[in-house]
Amino acid sequence: xxxxxxxxxKIGASDDLHISPLRDDGVTLGTPTWIWxxxxxxxxxxxxxxxxxxxxxxxxxxxxxxxxxxxxxTRDVGFESVDEAINDRVDDAYRAKYAASPYLAPMIAxxxxxxxxxxxxxxx
Length: 124
Description:
Layout: H1 5-13, E1 18-21, E2 33-34, E3 37-40, E4 43-47, H2 55-63, E5 65-70, E6 73-81, H3 87-97, H4 104-107, H5 110-113, E7 116-121
InterPro entries: UCP028498
Organism: Mesorhizobium neociceri
Protein name: DUF2255 family protein
């Protein structure tokens, strides 16, 4: 399943994405964590500020599923790590969306790049 253009536009313009990967039981959602998100090449991406040490990142990669809330929408989603090739375009999207933030530099540095995750919607 893919995001609609309308959904991606709303999420891309929003600064309120909360991510809740499933816990180790595979059923219970984790505590929602507010994170930055960007849209690149028709896909939704997030990164762990603390890199692969981020707890939500570890749960997302391990469980591959959870839920996000963004732009007034709540969706069950899948998570997958990405290959290095997309990271330059994801960096560009972070630069465009968060240019004024003092937190931009760490989000496009090697630590956060190593924790880039693609989020895909699941059928409801």
